[in-house]
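Reviewer 2 asked us to include a model.

Predict the structure of this chain.
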Amino acid sequence: FVEEKSPTNAVASGLTRLMVNSYFPKAATPEQLIQRTLLFVNDDPEAAVVFYANIDKHRSADDIAKLTVTLFKYLAASIEEVEKQDTKRTGKRRRFSDEDDDDEDSEPLSTNTMASLAEIIAVLWRSIEVQVESDDEWNQFLVDEFSGPVLTKLLTFFDEKTKSGEQHGELEQLLDACNRSCTAILQCAGRL
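Predicted model (structure tokens):
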């Protein structure tokens, strides 16, 4: 579970304070924040989850809510990209949105990276849950962004990924990543 990897003790908070300007600078664009998050996740996924679990002590709830939605949209778009590439191989496609992205050369995220992003999204939302519940505007913003069919489609994607892994003998690592993703997605759904 995400809780096991997300200590919010004084040491973790102090380390977050030291790294906050590297991974969550105030003046960064959404694209820069995504790139910094991916860099951190690819370097040390567990440390990234702990960092973002403690970010509420160092950034405003507004900034955290924006990052949460930015990462959520990025995760959904990344899964759409994986589905596009699967379509090229199999000829079958499950649509995520009506938007087409012509970026044929992008490398899709690994399932482990997607799982870490899902965990980060969940811990970010959890870190500001109290502040957001008392602010109707931000609460509605998050509910609006996370409502609709996307959460269900994310869960379906990871379920199908698990079934595919079973067929190809990659079950243990893939099942772990998919379970982490589904747990995080369900935590977000529980906050709606």
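The chain has a mean pLDDT of 84. The two ends are 20 Å apart (CA to CA). We have added this to the supplementary material.
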